[in-house]
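re: that chain from earlier
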Amino acid sequence: MQPATVKIISPKKLIEVALPLDKINEACAKEKMPGIGAHPRGLHQWWARRPLAAARAVIFAQLVHDPEDLWRHQNPGVEPNPQVKGHWSKARTRLFDMIEKLVLWENTTNETLLKQAREVILESWRHTCELNKDHPESKTLFNPAELPGLHDPFAGGGAIPLEAQRLGLKAFASDLNPVAVMINKAMIEIPPRFSGQQAINPKAIAPTESRWGGASGLAEDVRCYGEWMRLEAQKRIGQYYPKVKITKEMAEKRPDLNALVGQELTVIAWLWARTVKSPNPAFARIHVPLVSTFILSSKAGKEAFVEPVIEGDSYRFEVRIGKPPPEAKAGTKLARGANFKCLLSGIAIEDSYIYQQGKGGQFNRKLLSIVADGPKGRLYLSPSSEHEVLAAKIPDVWKPTLTMPNNPRWFSPPAYGMLTYGDLFTPRQLLALTTFSDLVIEARELIRQDAIKAGLKDDGIGLSAGGSGALAYAEAVSVYLGFSVDRSADFNNTCTRWVADNQKVMNVFDSQSIAMTWDYPEANTLADVVGGFATATKYISKCLRTISTRLPGKSFAATAQNENVIPNSIVSTDPPYFDNIGYADLSDFFYVWLRRSLRSIYPDLFATIAVPKDEELIATPYRHQNSKQKAEQFFLNGMTEAMKNLAEQSHPAYPITIYYAFKQSKTKMAETSNTGWETFLDAVLQAGLQVCGTWPVRSEQKHRRIGSNTNALASSIVLVCRKRDFEAKTISRRQFIRKLNETLPVALAEMTRNDEGEYSPVAPVDLSQAIIGPGMAIFSEVEAVLEADGSKMSVKSALQLINRFLAEADFDTITHFCLHWLEQMQFGEGSFGEADVLARAKGTSVEALQSEGVLSASAGKVRLYIWQEINPEIETSTSAWFVLHAMIQALNASGDSGAARILARFSYSAEILRQLSYRLYTVLERKGFAEQARVYNEIITGWDGIDNLAQTMPSAKYAQQSLQVAKKK
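^ sequence. v structure.
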């Protein structure tokens, strides 16, 4: 590393100044939507993987210079003229335009655009090398012919290394978790090694000059040998996956089956319900079903449901076609969780009883329905006794014996007696998965022989030794076939769900946990359906074709605290989020199958029985004597060491980018503060890093099962960091607050304005995250901020001071009251006494608020007016609250011109009104009042037009008082 006293000349990168954030977030949202097709993430399940669009944009902006700061470094002491400033604006516009194109999903493999982006990155690197040509270590650090590689020390799902590779960098991915290491090998290490390799299977179409470009040959062999495995499995275990024959007896009750009598249909899935002994003594010998819903299909025109038929002290299920009765929706479920009713007696089956039955091994199962592949789509049939009997006669095979953790937050099955990963599968599912695991090993030798016949060198050197001959190629294809077994396991276990609206199996990991299910599908893994093995290999083959293969990459196992293999690398990383996700625990579900299939290829990687956990940097109390304090301290210590290490290993000319994702419920109205976030920031600062900026990236879908009513990861912050100046001093609390008051108004104005080619406005909901950047830049650029007693200010206290600025801003007393009342009561009623106390605290009175026309007060109740109730005829007003709502009313009645007339008439500060709009949007959106928040977003969107109109009105008394915003230097 360079001597501490030698300064590196490093112009600010674009990510330290400006980003087209709205376009990036738009692309991230689109990429996360279903139906996007084959995607690199489809190679293997991972939890909380960042969108490729975000990773691509962040890396690009991390590598290219901001035009203004580059010019200032190239022309020290020269005062820029207007022409030079115009050049900066145009150059930044071009960079914005390139990012906006790069993040589009359809441009992911647009080689023309990617080549242009690589050239821009190289040009910035050459500028850096030129500026540092006199540095004593220039030959090592600043070789213009060799761009530094990018290293992600928490590689996880591999989005960051993959996009670094796509942008022309050598990519290095390390992780403690062997499943993550394997994913990254499959994304950045294996495909480049066999780039351009034609398919070697005997059925492959003869190659043309362009047919086998990139990883297409490898992908085709994955598909082909996956089909070979399916056919082999059919020979070995096909008798346990029978077809269903349509009989006359079946058609007597189902006229829709008449045309199919005598036909044998392929089964798509068997739908089962868990059962327990009835708690009613009269039916104690009968197992009754635990069914969350009797709805099979809710698709319009194709509705189907199960009807239980009770016959004395027994019951059976029959499938009905048509709209179901209301009671079918809830099945036998009474309430959330393990609360059901006895189908025979109607008495409640309490959760404690179900826990007892599960732990005692008393769970059984009952066939609800058979889903068959009919000539016009899904066909739902009543249960068949033959199929039910056959399912009970599956031979015993190997099953995973690894115990699941006793952590109900992420794993609920152990509470019901399902203690091992093997307990998650039916005997038939275990039979299929073990058969396919064995076939991965058998296929490897077949592929090797075919590769030798196709001309690959028979050198006996495997993948782990860096081989590229027949053995290494056979092992490479085997990796993706092993991934296909994992994908099959994800869709073939008893914690999956049957989704009635799109009529298919939903995998267990549609959330970041293994949740207990009561009724579940058992897919036909030999059929070409969701959950089928061939379906998995075909999908993985398609995903493999989207991988970049230009440059070599390297994935290896290492802890972020100790890894020192890649010095002077560009660092971008997505570390664990405190205690949000138990990556290692969840990974064991896949590890047990990968280890069975791939251990002979990577013996060191799969040497342990389970995924290593002791060093995993998450703050989960169950690993620390159930102590939250010990878990938090473990996370802080480990993350601090990791941050110190990556700071030491990173290239001094580049900032470091670090992602941090929030739980939605912990990101409050005007406050971004929770234990995990504070602890994480503390670790970053203790590592000697300075936060130069924060960018809120909307990287998660809003409407996922885990996101509907739980703490789903809703948004990420990307921190931009550099090493703190070794000469940094301390400042007092008073000095810190003064600097915040000087800096944050300017920063806030920059964040919320929309100057084409200069800045992209931050969404109102993200302001509280974005404002952390300039606030923490002040806090982290000094060695410490000292409190009055001489102690160091905590990160928590600093965040509170930063958040307070956004919460209070520069509003009048009337508006302050309305804001705080809104946060407490929204637009509902509160008592006069409460309003009176709050009004006095804010320096006003309820009477003054009534006179201002912002609320009603009668019969001891107080309520804020909604915008439709504001009286626009009031001639004078001193409150931003009234003027803004009068503008909104006029906007909805007369458009921009109406709102502009109100703004001109009251001569109120346009900037303060706009900030109030952002504030109100933030409050209401985060409280879940999306419809009420919408009007504030609408006026924000059209603000510039309204502002300009107000200034041009002939009769206006308009006097703009907008803040004078200084451009970032």
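DSSP finds 30 helices and 29 strands in the chain.
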